[in-house]
Amino acid sequence: MKIAVIDFSSTSISLLVEEVSGEMMTPVVGLRRSVSILGYMSKKGRLSERGVEKAVESIRYLIDAASKVGAQSVHLISTASMRRMRNYGEVMEAVRAATGLPIKNLSGQDEAYADYLANREYAALGSTLLLDIGGYSAAIADLDDGRREGMAALNIGPAALFPIYDGTYPSKEDAKKLRKVIRKAYVRNGVYPDRMYSHMVLTGSNAAALYSVYADFYSIADTSFRTMERKKLRKMVKHLIASEGRTVILIRNAPEKVHTLLPAAILAEESAAIYGADELIVSDRGVKEGYLRFILEEGNV
Q1: 229 forms bridges with which residues in the sheet?
Q2: Which domains occur in the chain, in start order?
Q3: What pLDDT does 97 receive?
Q4: In this structure, how many other beta carbons lie within 10 angstroms of the beta carbon of residue 221?
């Protein structure tokens, strides 16, 4: 049986189709449409009519792609991007009317739990924390502890951090301000206080883009196991903040995330520092993979 999950996020709308046979799940196709709803959001947080049209167009395209590879069921989910929309009800109705699919808007805790389900194999490393760097939120989960109660999604994603400073890139002083905001968010939400971890698993398209820049910066050869050292990541961030040539490496590796890559890098490095993780592992599995596992476990295919 082939099952499809479409994720409506702040920077893209993406599709995952997996073949399910018993407990075996094999990826069939993965597609991503770069539709940044940030450009269609008003200052009051409403998605414009054109933004709704672009979202509907992309969702229809991905539904058609899922159908062409034989997906028997399609599930449409959204995360922080939908939670912050003032007119999310209108958007949901427009999508349902055009596609016949309801949008399952995941709560922050559900988002973190889906990330956990997708990446719980990393618990074998021991002392491992997971961080999903989304657009507007950062979902966090202790991979050694599968209880949902401690999992959360905080409003400190790179798109939420970007408006804190003026200009395209943060200055040295802006970086200090961002780090303080990140630390205060963890303290205020009481997320895993007084816990230290050896490893941090990063997931999400921002994490993948960050690794591309890191690998280019340090001339790392392609490998299926992608890791970053926290101290080297901090060194890279300092260099990119100070260097006028940063745009070249950012555009070469993450053209769609030029404005949010540095806030994402600061979020990853500062989070790892807070929890004592010296090794950051970039996973290619996230919310879609986890949500698929969730609906299979619940029997809601």
Answers
A1: 279
A2: 2-105 (3.30.420.40), 109-282 (3.30.420.150)
A3: 95
A4: 5
